[in-house]
Amino acid sequence: MTGSSGLPSNIKVRDLPDGGAACARETRESSIELEVRFGDRDSDVRPDTGIDFLNHMLEMVAWYGGFNLEATYRQKRFNLSHVVCEDTGIVLGHVIRRIVEQRIPNGVASDGSGWGGIDDALAFAYVIVEGRANHFLELPDSLREGEVEDARNTDIVQFFEGFAQGCRATVHLRLVSGRDPHHRWEACFRAFAKALRAVIAPDPWRAGATAGVKGTLE
Length: 218
Hints:
Layout: E1 11-15, E2 21-26, E3 30-37, H1 52-65, E4 68-75, H2 81-103, E5 111-118, E6 121-129, E7 134-138, E8 147-148, E9 151-152, H3 153-167, E10 169-177, H4 181-199
Parallel strand pairs: 7-10
Antiparallel strand pairs: 1-2, 2-3, 3-4, 5-6, 6-10, 8-9
């Protein structure tokens, strides 16, 4: 069932005064709220998803994305980290899509790429928001199995799949090098954040248009 905004009735997206956006999503499994704000930098971003490693990666998204981010996640039934990661990606996707929509009249890039690195690890990301939900993650098998800190690697993958779904964006993510699991994911999130920063950057030449030549995000 969809609401008047065209979104499913369990998803509420609202604009914030500083040009940011917020999204709340309710299901039988969970409740999550996430917002992206601009303006003065918040030096103490503390997302609360219940997964410390995911919280840390969201800090990377805010820091390298150039915005403030708050997230609060509450389980309703079972403690499923797969659901936490996917739901968090979905709502962040809705928020970024809304920010792009807000900026279309004055011009917004709508696509962008970024490199991220830390010590031994290097990664590349490209994101384009044009109404096509795809994810192409070039990751070694070792980042699709096992654990990193208090998270399962396969669940962190679900974050990016959820983002593509919520934003209706195409996400390319490639780990170039790295051995330490924490560093490998951190490089990926830094690259992803820089791509998001490029996606929402002003581009007056594109005023009233989108990255895709069809001229709509639908």
